[in-house]
Amino acid sequence: MRGVLRMTLLATAVMGFAGAALAEDWKLEKEDDGVKVFLSPVAGSKYKAYRGVVDIKADVAKINALQEDVAGSCKWIHACAEMRLLKTEGDNSWTYSKIDMPWPVTGRDVVIHVTTEKTADGGLIRHLKAEPTYIPEEKGEIRVPKLIGEWKLVPKGAGVTEVTYQVQTEPGGSIPSWLANSFVVDAPMNTLKGLRSAAEK
Predict the structure, then answer these.
(1) What's CA 52's distance to the chain center, in Å?
(2) Domains in the chain, start-ordered, CATH in brackets?
(3) Strands (E), 25-72
(4) What angle do CA 126, 4, 175 make, to 5 degrees?
(5) Residue 68 and residue 184: Cα distance in Å, rounded?
(6) Residue 33 in contact with residue 191, Cβ under 8 Å?
């Protein structure tokens, strides 16, 4: 179960990267209640990448435990309808998530390969990459074909951790512009607020 990020989160992220390395022109889009959301255009994609940053009054171990709880993490991940662990091998995990979409937009699902690495400062980085053919597609869902992202947990001392959540994705199918524009802001904003609330209890 280690390293899973079930946070696949978002994978729940259904809106933002096609090649994480291509998103570098970050501009602050919104700041609310201590959470900052930055957006960046992505070459060759009509969807922007997003990056959310927040300081959480909890240590890396506690936040890591919340991310390791696959089913539980769905409660604080934006638009998460379902999440489950498919497989774990050492620091590699595969998760499956269903993403709620407002009617009449078809719901999305995504399989995420999560690779977890420990950093020298006591933090963690979870690398996210969609693997759309890992399991057969499910009826009634559109499989997310591309997603690249990461979670970064950086200890700041005094029991505080800086959490960065970054995603770039191609959601597949057709997404109305109003939904795409709101999702890239709401996903990191609401997910980080939810994670903070759970971690600071």
Answers:
(1) 10
(2) 9-176 (3.30.530.20)
(3) 27-32, 35-40, 49-56
(4) 80
(5) 24
(6) no
Helix (H) or strand (E) holding 185: helix 177-199
Rounded distance between C-alpha atoms, residue 38 and residue 28, angstroms: 4
Q: Which residues lie across from 87 on neighbouring strands?
A: 94
Whole-model pTM above 0.85?
Answer: yes
- CA Rg, the chain, in Å? 15
Please give the chain's pLDDT, 201 residues, in tens: 444 444 444 344 444 333 344 567 999 999 999 999 999 999 989 999 999 999 999 999 999 999 999 889 999 999 999 999 999 999 999 999 999 998 889 999 999 999 999 999 999 999 999 999 999 999 999 999 999 999 999 999 899 999 999 999 999 998 988 898 899 999 999 999 999 999 999
Give the CA distances from residue 181 to residues 45, 92, 96, 125, 176, in Å, rounded to whole numbers and listed in that order: 13, 32, 24, 27, 9
For residue 111, give both structure tokens: 């399989």
> How would you classify the pairing of strands 142-143 and 27-32?
unpaired
